[in-house]
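Hey,

The postdoc asked me to send both predictions to you directly instead of through the lab channel. I've kept everything plain text so nothing gets mangled by the mail client. Protein one:
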Amino acid sequence: MSDDLFAPRIPEDVANRRPLADRLRPQTLADVTGQEHLTGEDGVLRRMIASGSLGSMIFWGPPGTGKTTVARLLSGEAGLAFEQISAIFSGVADLKKVFEAARLRRMDGRQTLLFVDEIHRFNRAQQDSFLPVMEDGTVILVGATTENPSFELNAALLSRARVLTFRSLDEGSLEVLLKRAETAEGKALPLTEDARASLLRMADGDGRAVLTLAEEVWRAARDGESFDTEALTRIVQRRAPVYDKAQDGHYNLISALHKSVRGSDPDAALYYLARMFDAGEDPLYLGRRLVRMAVEDIGLADPQALVICNAAKDAYDYLGSPEGELALAQACVYLATAPKSNAVYTAFKAATQAAKENGSLLPPKHILNAPTKLMKGEGYGEGYRYDHDEPDAFSGQDYFPEKMGRQTFYDPPERGFERDIRKRLEYWAKLRKERNPR
């Protein structure tokens, strides 16, 4: 007790001086800016609340986009108890306590919204522990992650939760936050117009960051002082970030690289590749993306594209950095200058859709093996013609299930190597019609 008496007293206004980002935290979903596709009048979350039924969700998006705030507001507007844990600091024992508390609440007629920050940091077994309490309605799980859920979360968990994407805040949304901050502080930011625009870029789509930067500016400014862009950079000790592997910059640049390759612009493709190298991107990640471009956008228009991309990946493995980057740059230029075709990509999607729609149809019996007498008696293998024994090594038989009829998925364009493939297919189609008229 005596320790308390003689402890230095902290002025109440200082003790209550919370960070600006915390003080300006939205109080309703309508106050959330930058996520109107979710929280707006016609947004997904609004519709869920109006229906009176919430399901488990995964909030996926960059830091500072409002995932935690939205989860808390969602629980309030839906009348749910709110529990929050972080996968960084929690283990199985913590989860058990939370689940037990949620079960007790449920017995009293109140459901729990469990918000799990950084949910991707839980291992597979820990992620599986959520399944029973999600299925029996003990909790409505809302997990937040900055990483792609498709790669970081269990398929079983994803099948029980809807993924909602939070967008990096654009400059308009960040400007809204700055104006709210100025209203709360009762004064304008002491920045020139160019410096204000620079501060918005420095925030890089992060709402929390833009408010933190604004606080730094106010702390540094003397009465009547105003900062230009150069002074702002000195004060906050931060240049406008070009790229962050955990934020939208990563996805924006890889998208720009992919579309530059698809658009046959080797100069733009090299520029975006160089930006990602400069930002510290994993070269093997870029190698994998180049392989994807080879099979999606070049395909059989130039079959060497895939070979060269795999060779570039192997070359990087062999040479390491920085010499290995040149092999990936070479593959990038090759892809950008290669003839383009997505015919195989399109054909595979169409074939996949047909496989889903038509169920488990039996192939025609004449192309099925008949290892037993029973199968022979059922007509398996009967009438099969061995193509190598036919003229032109082509029998022209029908290989599709009878109930489906013949389908055409692959339609090669008159470009690159696929021009030759198209000629072959047209020739075989002519022979098929002649040898199997119907």
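Protein two:
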Amino acid sequence: MASAVKDNAGKGTQDEAVRDTTAPAQQTPAKNARPGYGQLLRTPGAWAFLLPGFLARQPFAMLTFSILLLVQHTTGSYGTAGVVSAVTGVSMALFAPQSGKLADRFGQRAVLVPGVLVHAAAVAAMITLALSHAPLWALLVIAVPTGASTPQIGPMVRSRWAAKLTGTPLMPTSTAFESVTDEFTFVIGSVLATALCTGIHPAAGLIAEGALTLGGGLLFAAQRRSQPPVHRSADSSAKRASALSVPGLRVLIAGLFGIGTVFGGMQVSLTAFAEDIGQPGINGLLYGVFATGNMLAGIVCGAISWKVGPRRRLLVGYALLTLLTTPLWAVTVAPLMGAVGLLVGLCIAPALITGYTLVDSLVPAAARTEAFTWLTGAVGLGQAAASTVAGLLADHFGPHAGFLVPLCGTGLALVVLAVFRGHLVPRAETLVVGRGVGHRSPATVD
């Protein structure tokens, strides 16, 4: 205890030196300053996992979209394509937290290597079945392992940042940076999947997805130095407890499920909209404009030193998102659809970044990868549900009917966030104070 007090006193002295204007420039910035992306990217060892991580996460945006385009081509039905895509997404969402829990306990490499091998095999089977016009039940069966084996690279990268930066002013910056990277992934992934499926071959998107998952995943797994420590030696209660036991995380899951309905509803509905106006090739462009808005907003959010608390930012951002999804169903021309989609995208990033930021103060470090995968899984589950419902609506009521799905999904999630907003306040022992998470020293929750 005495040594811990001395250590904390030493840290306090260092903090005072940092706040002094004569402190060296390379020191950690003052607690009230917001470090930029440049300083974040100069974190020692960061590029070693960022580059393969970026490559390996591209398939996350390509998988369900490529399945949707392939199955729609081979069956001629948006409803059938939406169902197969949805089963893949549901499987991904349900198995992702288990993958995160195993990564927390045994290490990311132990989970990634077998996972990417299974995924590549499952994707190859999906392509073969779809092109051979296999019955729907066969496609649904292979969709389960295809989604379940999807590597959770984004949460794993976030955990690597947290292992390096928790307790420093760079942690919120890394959260914003990861959200920007996610949205950049959706921009590239959606456009790439569309270009490959429509310009080369209906199966080309899935082939590229499988290859990127295998190659990128193995490269990422090879970066052992930045891998977060495993938690097999944690005390028994923390070891058995799931991140899902944190009430605030359950509220955030509902919020990110709503964001997932925007992604899924937009994917299917924009595809149907482009077909309806006789320009099927622009669906990837329209979705790319939507994702670009998300990415640009993420860049801005990460650069702002916020004075408004995260809970309020989440509620305000979500209310704007719900409002701007309202006119989607009434748009009939491509330029206006692109403009409205851009505005919707601009409203996603603030809510998404804030949700991930709150995890750092709500969830103990030993369960953080699992928590991130729950949020990522919630987005995937919302995307899957929305693609199914939007596909069925497009088949039976026309292409514009699918745009009602994002509106309903975000509206319901907003109600949940507003009613249970009290759970988004961190407990006393996990409050963020000063330079970062207060339980960093003698941690009762770790």
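Summary for protein two, as requested: The longest helix spans residues 46-75.

Thanks,
C.
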